[in-house]
Amino acid sequence: MNTILETRNLTYGYSEEEHAIEDLSLQFEEGKTTAILGANGAGKSTLFLHLNGILKPEHGQVLFHGEPISYTKSGLRKLRSKVGIVFQNPDDQLFSASVYQDISFGACNLGLPKDEVRARVEGMMEQIGITDLRDRPTHSLSFGQKKRVSFAGIMVMQPEVIILDEPTAGLDPVGVSELMHLLKRVCKQQNTTIILSTHDIDVIPVYADEIFVMDKGKLLTKGTPKEIFSQPELLRYHHLRLPRLSHMLEILQKEDGLDVDFSESTISGARRQVLNCIKQTQEA
After folding, report:
1. Would you say 214 and 220 are in contact if contact means Cβ atoms under 8 Å apart?
2. CB-side exposure of 135: number of CA atoms within 13 Å?
3. Which of 57, 61, 100, 107 lies 20 to 30 Å from 139, alpha-carbon distance?
4. Which domains does the chain have, with CATH numbers?
5. What is the C-alpha to C-alpha distance for residues 188 and 22, in angstroms, rounded to an integer?
6. CA gap 62, 50 in Å, rounded
7. Measured between alpha carbons, how far is 146 from 168 in angstroms, rounded to an integer?
C-alpha cells in the first residue's frame, strides 16, 4: 500500500503553555479506513484540521502524496479538492438555501462545467438516497439528513481522502448503522481513503482496517483492530474501552475460565469463540 497522507513531527498549540499535538508522525495508507481513537483532548480534531490545511503547524509537516502541502491560496484550494472533511456538527458545514445548492457548492468551486456539476450532484444524491430532499431548505432537515447532505457535499468533489469527525454522533442506533454502511459503500465505489474519529468503539472493528490510539497529542500505539483490542489495560488507562463483544469475551475468559480470545470484537468473531467453547465442552 502507498502512503497517501502523512504527518512528520507535527506540533501545534492553542496556547504557549501547552501543545494540542506534539511531535506527531503518522502515515495513512491509500484505500484503507483508519480510525483515530482517543479521549476528549487527545488531539484528534486538531490533527484533522491540519490534514485539511485549516491549521498550519508550528513545527513539522503535513504531506500529501509525499509532497509538503502548500499554504498558498491556490495550494489550499487544490488540497481541499482532494482531502475533504465532514465536521461533527453538520450545521457547521451547511449554509446554502437548498440541499441541491449546498451539495453543488464544492463542485462549482472546482470550475467544472455546469453539466458535469449537475450530473455529479444528481448521481451522488441518488447514491446516498436523498434525491427527494433536492429542493428542501437545509435548515428544515433532520439531524441524520443533514449528516447525509454534508457527506454528499464532500463526495461530489470526488476527493481522494475523506476525514470524518465523529460521523455517528447524535444518531440513533439504526441511523449509525445506515450511515456507516453508506459511507463505506460510497467510498469503496470511488476508491476513497477514509480517516475517522469516533467515541462509538463498537463500530470500529466492523469498519476500520487500522487504528491509531492518541492521548495528549501523541501517538500511543497503532495496529489492526484485533491488535489494539488485545490491550484492554492500555485502552482503559487512557480512558477508552473495549468493544462490548470483546468485553463479554474478556469476562468469559477471566471470570468463567473459558478459553476464548477477547481481541475478537465482531459478531462473527465472537460467535466463533463461543462455538469453539461449546465444541470443546462437548468433546470433553
Report:
1. yes
2. 0
3. 107
4. 3-240 (3.40.50.300), 242-284 (no CATH)
5. 33
6. 7
7. 12
Question: Quick check: 24 and 218 in contact, CB under 8 A?
Answer: yes
- Return the bridge partners of 34, or none: 195, 210
List, in order, residues 6 or more apart from 212 with CB less than 8 Å away: 26, 34, 35, 36, 37, 219, 221, 222
From CA 81, how far away is CA 239, in angstroms rounded? 35
Alpha helices by DSSP H, listed for the chain, are: 44-51, 73-82, 99-109, 114-128, 143-155, 173-189, 204-207, 225-228, 232-237, 244-254, 267-283
pLDDT tens-digit readout, 113-172: 999 999 999 999 998 889 999 999 998 999 989 999 999 999 999 999 999 999 888 888
CB atoms within 10 A of CB 145: 17
pLDDT tens for 63-116 read: 999 999 999 999 999 999 999 999 988 888 888 889 999 999 988 988 889 999
Amino acid at 203: V
Query: Which of helix, strand or coil describes residue 211?
Result: strand
Q: In the numeric block, which cell numbers belong to residue 37? A: 481513537
∠ CA 213-216-222, nearest 5°, is 15
